[in-house]
Amino acid sequence: MAAMVAKRSLCRMYVLSTVSPASTQLFRQAACCYSSTKHPFQGGEGSGSSSPTGHLTMSSSSKQLSTADIKKIPDAEVRKSVFISQSNDVFTNLALEDWIYRNFDLTHHHILMLWINKPSVVIGRHQNPFSETNVSALARNGIELARRNSGGGAVYHDLGNLNCTFFMPRARYNRKYNLTLLTRALYREYGINAELSARDDIVLLGKKISGTAAKLGQPNAYHHCTLLVNSNKLHLGASLEKDNVEITSKATASIPSPIKNLVDVNRTVNIQQLLSAIGYEFLRTPATQLTDGGRELLMKQRGFQLINPTDKWFPGITELRENFASWDWRFGKTPNFSVQKSIQLKSAGAGAPHHQQEMKVKVDVEKTIKMSYLARKGPAVYSALGKWAYNMAGFNQYGLHRDDCLYENEDVKEAIRRLPEKLKDERNFRITRALHLSMTKTILPKEQWTKYEEDTKYLEPYLQEVVREREEKVKWESNK
Which domain holds residue 150? Predict the structure, then answer.
């Protein structure tokens, strides 16, 4: 399959026998490919469609059927495809998932997308990343943090984890059908007897091997889930370990569960063979009935397609990916929350011995950060609190100053314009260096971090001057 990927951007495969470990080889030998040199918008065989994979899009369909009409469509008129993403980038695969959901007409065509990501943590749409993982530790270890468009809890992905997304019309959404199809594939291919839990997880010997979530819209819906094949459980546990702070939030919280890899019960399980088995099970099963249609049904389907998620095939997917990778989506969508942490302070009076005092600091986080002080006022308290909040922000690890990070409204822009050339050059250098560090997912050596005591508010005098002039101008004009 890897050799085919190098020569083809899109590939169709047909399976010619019953699934078994031996038949997987036959499955690969029976692959029938067509060249990607065809223009991506020519459509598939006889489809007359302008979609990148030759399937109907919502804009090209003649009309949108009602829920009742969709439910009346017989299974014999519904075709199926298995899409295999050739990307291991979590943001690209989330964008591909969203593109299909937004654009495809699934009325007579159901899709199973199979995809694998490099190490990453994916949280639900309504979750708080700081409640689900240690965000700073993920960044240090080069593990991406992503937010998906569906609900549910946080999950860890790596190359030992297979992701499955079922696309169908909202009227045909059936979560148990999809999950049962997966358990049937596991049993048919490996003799593994997995079950569905009351929470619609797939469990094996009492431990979770698959989590599940869904996006229900109109007219389309999708249901996606994971399958732990040979995931690194040490990295999984460390990536989902939370920071040692108390967080109060209305965000959806994950429910921890003991997990198991499929290789823990059958060492012969591997990603590529399992991918083939699940795709085969999907294609040989009618759209609404969990019965075996066998070779006859399978040969009527649209088969397997290797998908290259680029703008050439999916116009606008790069912009979708940028949205999923943006700070505004991953962190800015976090529901309001509060963080509380205890700090040990040392204090001493004149001639008195040192003694420790505990102070609790509460940070209320909305669109911006505001501080609530739950401690006795005093210089020592404010100094310790300020230093803690400064280091917590993290910008100093990139060599930035506080005034480098101000939101650039019109007042700030004017203040920057008034800076002396030397200060302006120093500011530009710090910001350019920080952008480079961010792109390479690194930070400065600790001895080069900006220190709280040395961070001067170089922009503040100029900003105060700009604000004062603006207020005077408004006052003057109001008195005319």
Answer: 68-331
> Same structural domain for residues 159 and 275?
yes
pLDDT in tens, 389-424: 667 667 888 888 888 888 778 888 999 999 999 998
Distance CA 98, CA 215 (A): 10
CA 107, chain centre distance (Å): 27
Identity at 91, one-letter amino acid code: F
Do residues 18 and 292 lie in contact, with contact meaning Cβ atoms separated by under 8 Å?
no
How far is 204 from 201, CA to CA, in rounded Å?
10
143 and 278 part of one domain:
yes
For the beta carbon of residue 143, count every other beta carbon within 10 angstroms.
Answer: 21
Q: Based on the domain organization, do 398 and 272 belong to the same domain?
A: no
Rounded Cα distance between 210 and 446, Å, is 40
Measured CA to CA, the distance from residue 406 to residue 400 in angstroms comes to: 11
Prediction pTM value: 0.68
144-159 tens-digit pLDDT: 999 999 999 999 999 9
Report the SS3 class of residue 248. strand
**How far apart (Å, rounded) are the C-alpha atoms in residues 363 and 61?**
51
User: What is the rounded distance in angstroms from the CA atom of residue 16 to the CA atom of residue 35?
Assistant: 21
Q: Which amino acid is at 192?
A: I
Question: Please, what is the end-to-end C-alpha distance for the chain in angstroms?
Answer: 78
CA atoms within 13 A on the CB side of 275: 23
State the virtual CA torsion across 380, 386, 391, 396 in degrees, nearest 10.
-120
